[in-house]
Amino acid sequence: MKEAMIKTKILTALHIDEAVALLKNGEVVALPTETVYGLAADAKNVEAINKIFISKGRPSEHPLIVHIDTLDRVGEWTENISEDAKKLAKHFWPGPLTMIFTKKNSVSSLITGGLSTVAVRIPNHPIALEIIKKLGNGIVAPSANAHKKTSPTQAEHVLKTLDGKIAAIVDGGTCSIGIESTIIDMSKEVPVILRPGAITQEMIEKVLGIAIESPLKHNEKVSGNMEFHYQPEKPLYIMTRDHIEKLLPTEDALAIMHYSNLHQSKNITYYAMPTEKTLYAQALYATLHTIDSTDVKKIIVEKPPFLSEWSDINDRLIKASSKK
Ligand code: TXA
Ligand code: MG
Question: Which fold has domain 9-208?
């Protein structure tokens, strides 16, 4: 089913009630969270949820995250909240942590992609929280970009792939974290990180007082686990500084995202990235969107430090790259 083009309304924090009314009416609305912009639908309206899959071009077996506003509402989605999950919720919610639980029977399989588990988080953003509270049902919200494309951290990034396909966007400025939430599977005996994010393995282990798992590869069906994802329009290659220096000079028009000092060379547009991880994360998707709007042929990214703190950045860049 293909959706006809509609006029996408641009709203702001002053129009929360209008956004809520659209959601109540079964429309999809993009809104800011602290990680990336999400494409929201009423989590208890199956027809509305279906619109998310249509407007993103997202395969229907790809499960969605339920976003709620208070801890006491987790019980609407799962009956199995372990003591460990409660500890993590108290510590990190609202915030960039998504927890996977065994789902309640009543949870639509459209949300879970047919899985017996459901993903839940409380986002840490005043606009998202107010909308969820006023709607009352929870929202499901994947990142607000066409399937497999670079995630949006600003309203204009959302419009690049979804303008004319969604009822509205609430412009709340730039997302403070810039990378999708950490996903941790709490339905297993030992918690497993399925997608790295701003809440690191070490931070979680410190709160739980136990070692958790963080496999590089796991069940294909889940969690940004596709080999290619987050891809900019231009081919992206990850290279060490030495490798980049050997490549230059070149006749190709290239964009280089670097954090070391590099000798400047012709035909190259340089994008100096922060050396501090949280600042790098904030800048990552915005820089990829900026480069995509120029006419360079390729994006070269200087290989970030291979440190656990940087695992979310490495994860996203590897999936965004054209050559492994
Ligand atoms: O930061 C975020 O998490 C953002 C903002 C908008 O909240 N949302 C987001 O959603 O990144 P999305 O749909 O782009 O990514 C959600 C990931 C998917 O890779 C999906 O496979 C995984 O969550 N997921 C959802 N439910 C799951 C489940 N029951 N088991 C395993 N993975 C699940
Ligand atoms: Mg996504």
Answer: DHBP synthase (3.90.870)
